Amino acid sequence: KPQRLRRWRVWTSLLLVWITCATHTSMSALANQLRGLDQGGTAPGMRQPGEVRGTLTRAKRGWVWNQMFVLEEFSGPDPILVGRLHTDLDVGNKNLKYVLAGEGAGTIFAINERTGDIHAMKRLDREEKAEYTLTAQVINRDTNEPLEPPSEFIIKVQDINDNAPEFTNGPYHATVPEMSQVGTPVTKVTATDADDPVYGNSAKLVYSILEGQPYFSIDPNTAVIKIALQGMDREMREEYLVVIQAKDMGGHMGGLSGTTTVTITLTDVNDNPPKFSKSLYEFTIPEDLGIGQVGGKVKANDRDMGENAKSTYNVIGGDDKDVFEITTDSQTQEGILRLKKPLDFENKKSYTLRVEATNVNFDPQFSGSGPFKDTATVKVAVEDSDEPPVFTQPSYLVEVHENTGVNAVIEQVAAHDPDITGSLVRYFIDRHTDLERQFNINVDDGKITLAKPLDREMDMWHNITVTAMEVRNHSQISRAIVAIKVLDINDNAPEFAMEYETFLCENGKPGQVIQTVSAVDKDDPKNGHFFIYSLVPEMSNNPNFTIKDNKDNSINVLAKHDTFRRQKQEMYYLPIVVSDNGSPPMSSTNTLTIRVCGCSKEGIVQSCNVEAYVLPIGLSMGALIAILACIILLLVIVVLFVTLRRHKNEPLIIKDDEDVRENIIRYDDEGGGEEDTEAFDIATLQNPDGINGFLPRKDINELQNSIVLRLFLLFSKGHVVSSL
Ligand SMILES: *[C@@H]1O[C@H](CO)[C@@H](O)[C@H](O)[C@H]1NC(C)=O
Ligand SMILES: *[C@@H]1O[C@H](CO)[C@@H](O)[C@H](O)[C@H]1NC(C)=O
Ligand SMILES: *[C@@H]1O[C@H](CO)[C@@H](O)[C@H](O)[C@H]1NC(C)=O
């Protein structure tokens, strides 16, 4: 606090005397700043040391004296006086000395140590450094002791208009649609000025247009470039070079200026219609030009570009038969005339077409400037070309009955040379299509004859190719297909549809259906087949069988009685006559073989074997199953037994003297364990009663067989008349 107070006292005693050496402008600048201070604001550029801000608010008026001003870029013969330091202590005794320190002290600024005058020794540039901070002090010349504490002040470099405006982003490029309205903004430019923007008008810029009128204008303040002329046409001129000037000092005399260029390109709008380069096009097209081939090209030019220049082409007249079409080549924008149908010189020798080109895109803004389309006339001359013969029909369909005689004419084909020369034509059959040489053709008149008899049941279609060749030029050939369909005649008799295997149940009821019989016929009558079945006349009163018509081209064969027996007659042969309804009708005799069989109650055939007839009849099914089950059981026991024996490595040979007949097998016998080999002597089974005189056998297989047979006899005794 005491230090601050002391410094305050220094400032009151050490006066900075401002020397009037500046121009009028620097005076007014100072005046401005003073006015700013009066109004309570802080003058721009005024330095306010932080540590004294508290006191500043009370005595700010005095602070203006800690600044000095010096004009930039000042050059004269002598150093320029910036200002003077003065202290209250300086009362005339020459013992005082002023000392300067800080930025530029001694180099840029020099002080007269006696008078306190400060001079600028160099030219100063505000744009380089706008202010310098320095300290001043008064010292005793003799003792070199400071009489006052040092005090700080600022030398401000005052702006003069020494910098011209600059367009740093230039040169510019901009686009604007052609035909834009006056006032349409195009682009905006910007210039900068390095001079002090807040002091004076050195940096106050005004824009003007130097080149580019009357097409464009610029707003002096915003620098927005605008369209200034109505109806600017890209097709007339596309690019404009506009020169813009920026001038400082608010555009007044004496201001500095800078320029830039703006290249403005007009973009296309669809303001031009397509226009045919000619009003009449003439093409010559050969009559044999293929369909889809190019016959000629037309072009409608459009002064616009890109999408706006695109057109579609159409044939709008002169093509009643719809022979031509016109498409757009997307690359060249040409209209390509193509054939949709073949031309014929002999029929029509010229066409006069109306062709229209229409812009694809349409801008309603220009709807007033007429239709965006154009028409032209296209004359097409058809040119005669040497053409091959032409058949009266592209293909022929012939129907021939299969019984048609050899050498009969079945068809006559004809072809003629369409050219004016009218050559004679010769006819041939392509033998690749008639490998069997079924047909012949007359070379001169095209009559097709039959070379071999036809058979519909072998080949229904004979599709042959006939060629016609001009006599004048053997390379002029054309072909036609002759499809020959062979028509049916009734030349086949019906016959059984299959080889029937027919069975008849012995115990069936009279009238039982034993077979359904149907027939087939290779012929193909128009109204379908109708078969008539009958028994051969000599058997029409057959006592055993009869037939019944099912009304669907099949019959049922029925048994007439129930006394068919295998022993009596095993097979019956039943000849049946099948006839069709053709004219004349064809018929065949087919024999049905009927076999007599034994059936179950349900009528399922069980045995058709005569030998098997002797097998049990009275024996019921249940009994048979029971017998079988017992046999199997016994077999299992025997096999088990034998296996046990084998296990013990006991010989199975049974000695004659050990074959004791009195032995009785008791299944409840208790065995003697593994060691007891005698208890279940198998030999005892071999011949329990010996009635059939079987000899005891040592062979184990024989042994088993005999057991089975005997057991079977035991079980079936009384039921079976056996041949065993
Ligand atoms: C022959 O031509 C006819 C008619 O075009 C066709 O229906 C038939 O299938 C053809 N036959 C053969 C074997 O190509
Ligand atoms: C015969 O016809 C062929 C095929 O059209 C053609 O290339 C050739 O020039 C003709 N020859 C003559 C002698 O006209
Ligand atoms: C009918 O069947 C009996 C035997 O059952 C046989 O003798 C006779 O020849 C058969 N008749 C004919 C026409 O087959």
Automatic annotation (TrEMBL):
GO terms for cellular component: adherens junction; axon terminus; catenin complex; synaptic cleft. Residues 1-22 form the signal peptide. One of its GO terms (biological process) is cell migration. It holds the Pfam family Cadherin. The chain crosses the membrane at residues 613-642. InterPro entries: Cadherin, Cadherin-like_dom, Cadherin-like_sf, Cadherin_CS. Keywords: Calcium, Cell adhesion, Cell membrane, Glycoprotein, Membrane, Metal-binding, Repeat, Signal, Transmembrane, Transmembrane helix. It comes from the Eukaryota. Its main location: membrane. It is a single-pass type I membrane protein. Residues 87-167, 168-276, 277-391, 392-496, 496-618 form the Cadherin domain. It is found in: Cell membrane. GO terms for molecular function: beta-catenin binding; cadherin binding; calcium ion binding. This is Cadherin 8. The gene is CDH8.
